[in-house]
Amino acid sequence: MASTVPGDLTGALDCVVVGAGPAGLTAATYLARYRRRVVVLDAGASRARLIPASHNCPGFPLGVAGNRLLERYRAHAVRYGVDICAGRVGAVRRTDDGFTVQMEQGDVPAWTAANVVLATGVVDRLPAMEGRDEAIAHGVLRLCAVCDAYEALDQHIAVLGDDLDAALAHARFLRTFSRRVSVIVGQGMAPDGSGRRVSDEGIGIHLGPSRLALVQGKCQVRFADGSVEHYDTLYPVLGADPQTQLVRALAPGTDAQGALQVDRHMQTDIEGLYAIGDLVSGLNQISVAVGHAAVAATAIHRSLPQHLA
To answer: Is the pTM of the predicted complex or chain greater than 0.85?
Structure first.
């Protein structure tokens, strides 16, 4: 990971990409191949790094670990001259000529660019669980049913939520993959107030989890009444927090979930400020994020002078 400023990156850039996940690295690769001056700022917190193995990422039929996938995206970008600089961004500010990207950590105090691409993603709200990191690494605690429910075929699956309707909707989706799907929600979430019941679709509903733990390769759930259940896979449906704090002062448009609103070019309502990947409402998938990146990078290229200086 680069940590110094190459001579040709001094002065204003065509674009600063904030975030070095699949979306950010793809956008930078496109921009570099468009012969634009671009830098990627990497805080080292891509959500993709948590993926034990993805089997729905195109081109990897045998699966690929998130860290390995990031290495390949990074190598692709670097091949075309993209500089990836370690550091944490503190704020993005508007200027007369574009933007200043102020750093909290890094060798460069600030970057200036005509455009900024935000690829900062979301942070999942995870349950309190003993052995949580190990559970994620071994596919016991899974964060995306669209991504990996196929790997939970015919397993005993639980959906953990704080909203009964949302949890049931997620459970219905999972019934495509297994007949044994249950919902676990907080006390008082069931309309009839009962501790346990079964929905019309045959989905078990349990209230009041008091302890979650990874035990012998399964998720052990202890309930308030003292009973214990073991699940092969647990899907939390607790939401996620879009990482938009860097542009809060600019007040771009957001939706009800706090995700940034963009036009068909992935541009926010602030000219020159683009958002891609999970930061934008929709299907949070690597393939979708990569598509966002291609659209945004091409729009930026077309907005800039189309001839060599």
So the answer is: yes
